[in-house]
Amino acid sequence: MAEVVDSGEGCKLLYHGQGQGDSGALLLRSRLLSIAQRLGFAATTGESMVLVAAEMASNQAKYAGGRGFIQVWQQPGPVLDILALDYGPGIEDPEGAKVDGFSSRNTLGKGLGSIQRLSDESHLYTRCADRDGVRRWTGAAVMARFRSPRSGRGALLADRVGLFSRSLEDERYSGDRIYLRRNGGQLQWLHLDGLGHGDTAYQTTADLAGYLGWRGEPQETLLAIDRQLLATRGAVAILGEVDGAARAVSLLGVGDMHAHLFGTALDEESTVAFAPGVLGREHKQPTRFDSRFARRGVVITASDGIRRNWDGSSFPGLFEHHPQLIAYVVGNIMARMSDDQSLCVVGVDPDKKNNEGG
To answer: DSSP letters of 322-357?
Structure first.
């Protein structure tokens, strides 16, 4: 049976802050080396992480006036991601900026090139100001990924899925939870938002992994979860499935969550809302949505901790990038800071092999 990945265990924000100044740089260095050792990285890889973070901090200071932050994330695999996101003017030539010697400030431009070389993979998204005068996010997001030699649960998901899960006020427990199960070319996930916050909400959404791969229709699966949650405060949920080879997606949901699809055959972009109610409490008939993709695309499910007032025009070109970079950009910029926040981004690319075991 395919293993189930639990975001409650595999997706963790380990650091959020500045990498500039003596105290910020020392704290980030210390945290990175400690995390690298715990995840089984070699000492030399830990030093590479420190150099990558230093380059990111230097770029933010030079080009964004220090208006940004650096995050360190653990993702299933396990992998370690270093993310730098800023609120600067953006990079007008992102491809050129990756080439050593390029600089928009007449300085020796080696920052992005070194990040690319030192990490196992790196990704860049940037946005410059539009000429229409409308205020939108501008800046750059740079992600550097390091894959642990202790490859385990979730390793086969790393190239296809992006996760973002952050608890209210950075508490230890989040009521938002995502379970994922890959079986060949099919990927199933259960995205939950337990009512309330903290440990109570966290426990509400625990122990539901077994419902992925449930022998029955998706409707029956949600009804079974509904029964299990009767003794709790309840949760809202989306049950999703993507078949990469068939380019098909199916979503079934109840409650205040939302989904976004980019690259479908019927519409270039779709936004999906779900039937009102709460599993374990009162709710209406779950909403089902089915579609197919023209070729490549992404499916995004989100809790209500992520604002809804965005679409493809808010982040032009972003949804052609790696699912994890999409999750970091949308999650950080569109987060509501009064609630737990979570996103699951699933990439659909029939040109890639989809027949590996899950």
So the answer is: -HHHHHHHHHHHSB-TTS-EEEEEEEE-TTS---S-
DSSP calls for 83-118: EEEE-SS--S-HHHHTSTT--SSSS---HHHHHHHH
Integer Cα distance of 44 and 133 in angstroms: 47
How many angstroms separate the CA atoms of 324 and 346, rounded?
Answer: 9
Is 229 in a helix, a strand, or coil? helix
Residue 253 pLDDT greater than 60, yes or no: yes
Structure tokens belonging to residue 138? 């501008």
Closest by Cα among 258, 261, 253, 249 to 290: 249
Give the homologous superfamily in CATH for domain 159-348. Answer: PPM-type phosphatase domain (3.60.40.10)
Question: Domain 4-147: which topology?
Answer: Heat Shock Protein 90 (3.30.565)
Token digits of residue 300:
């995004």
Residues 32/73, Cβ–Cβ less than 8 Å: no
What confidence tens digit (pLDDT) does each residue in 129-175 have? 887 766 789 999 999 999 998 776 666 687 899 999 999 866 678 99
219 SS3 class: helix
Q: Residue holding tokens 């009162």?
A: 282
DSSP 3-state of 200: helix
332 versus 185: the higher-pLDDT residue is 332
CA dihedral (90, 93, 95, 101) positive or negative: negative
pLDDT digit string (tens) for 81-92? Answer: 999 999 999 988
| pLDDT one-digit tens code per residue, 21-73 | 888 899 999 999 999 999 999 999 999 999 999 999 999 999 999 899 999 99
